[in-house]
Amino acid sequence: MKPKAFTLVELMIVMAILAILAGMAVSQYSTYKHKAQAKDLVTLAAGCVHEIVSQCTVDPGFSSPSSLENCRSRNATAYLDVVNFLLPSSFSCNRTFSVVAYATVHGTTVVYQANCTYDKTTHNIFCSGPEQRR
């Protein structure tokens, strides 16, 4: 005669597998949540690039993007601690340039960054991120 019920060992194995899967899901959820909260960085980096391009249109000899309002470090947003910008060290309106915005998500030590590049030849802005900064 065959037994028709699960043994205690079988039930414990199933519970262990479910616990492992739940642990992985919680970890992935946190990663995706932090990345979604860091999406503001793309908007901030793009805003800096747009302001630089506008300034270059008005003044082709412009050379100090760090003086622009949208390119300065700023206090926290809804999800991010202080937002900082990496700007080109030797800037010229006649060249392609990139701006990197980076910040820590509230309550974590993980730093995310977004990168926006202005292509002088095509006059297009390309942004990527947010990505974990290493």
From TrEMBL:
NCBIfam families, from UniProt?
IV_pilin_GFxxxE
**TM spans (from-to):** 6-26
The record lists the organism as Thermosulfurimonas dismutans
Lineage start: Bacteria, Pseudomonadati, Thermodesulfobacteriota, Thermodesulfobacteria, Thermodesulfobacteriales
Protein name, as recorded:
Type II secretion system protein
The record's section on InterPro entries has: N_methyl_site, Pilin-like
Its keywords, alphabetically, are: Membrane, Transmembrane, Transmembrane helix
The answer to whether UniProt assigns keyword Metal-binding to this entry is no
Q: Answer yes or no on keyword Secreted.
A: no
